[in-house]
Amino acid sequence: MISHKNDAALETLLAGLEKWSATAGWIPARIFTRFLPLKNDERISPILHSGDATLPLTTVVTEEGIRYALDFAAGYSHGLFLDQRMNRAKVRALRPKRMLNTFAYTCSFSVAAAMAGAETVSVDLSKKSLDRGKQNFALNGIAEKGHRFIAGDTLDLLPNLDSHGERFDLIILDPPTFSRGSNGRRWQVEEHFVDLLGAALELAMPKCSILLSTNCTKLNPAALEQMSRMCTKGRRRTVDYPRFATSVDFPTGTGSSTLWMMVR
């Protein structure tokens, strides 16, 4: 899958892939391209650039022994974000007991946590996406017992979880850049991420790890940390910021911006 913002970028990326493939001795069976528009309503499904058009548009990939379903006919996103690979590995290494995965999409973080023995709660506005998440659980032989899939607005759900005394030792906050909730409420990540984090902190156990992640170009890791420090100071929570190695194929400045924080 090659994502691009214009034709010139696409040509550069295709040439780079061809050069790398020749060096590595690996030729992709199929190449899909995806245009990245400025507005959500301009999004289109990935397009097959090369390869056998008669092959099914669904497939299964394996990452560190975990299987994930991909569907290139499902719409704008095929089901797995590669720039989160290192963070999925970190989730598994943390071995949480209870994980909350907000804006869960196809629940890849939840699967990684479940493979490490955690109970999980996965939240997303789209029931269809959560159904795809359940498929990922089934692909890995994980029974749904101990795992909840909630179709709803995250900002409405977090206070409800708090009122029921639910607490987590790992929380994933990877919201979209822009969306509208089920009640029509507008969400803009650079304006509302701090509210999301504040609500999540109410659910954090001592020594809870929280992943902040966004594709918004206005929020780099430094901006995420500044926001986090402001938010935690206001709630009198002490936080550490562990640093982890970045993926070699998504160096600094590419892919999503992420920040891990550990609430004492």
Explained architecture:
This protein has 264 residues and is α/β, with parallel strands linked by helices. The chain folds into two domains: 2-55, no CATH class; 81-263, Rossmann fold (3-Layer(aba) Sandwich), CATH 3.40.50. 33% of the residues lie in helices and 27% in strands. It has seven helices and 14 strands. It has helices at residues 7-24, 85-94, 108-115, 127-139, 154-163, 189-201, 221-234, and strands spanning 2-4, 31-35, 47-50, 58-63, 66-71, 98-102, 119-124, 147-151, 168-173, 178-180, 186-188, 204-214, 239-240, 257-263. A seven-stranded mixed β-sheet has the order 8-7-6-9-12-14-13, with helices on both faces. A three-stranded mixed β-sheet has the order 1-2-3, covered by helices on one side. The chain has a two-stranded antiparallel ribbon with strand order 4-5. Helix 2 runs parallel beside helix 3 (108-115). The longest helix is centred in the N-terminal third of the chain and has 18 residues, at 7-24. The N and C termini lie far apart (39 Å). The mean pLDDT is 92.
Helix and strand layout, with pairings?
Blueprint: E1 2-4, H1 7-24, E2 31-35, E3 47-50, E4 58-63, E5 66-71, H2 85-94, E6 98-102, H3 108-115, E7 119-124, H4 127-139, E8 147-151, H5 154-163, E9 168-173, E10 178-180, E11 186-188, H6 189-201, E12 204-214, H7 221-234, E13 239-240, E14 257-263
Parallel strand pairs: 1-2, 6-7, 6-9, 7-8, 9-12
Antiparallel strand pairs: 2-3, 4-5, 10-11, 12-14, 13-14
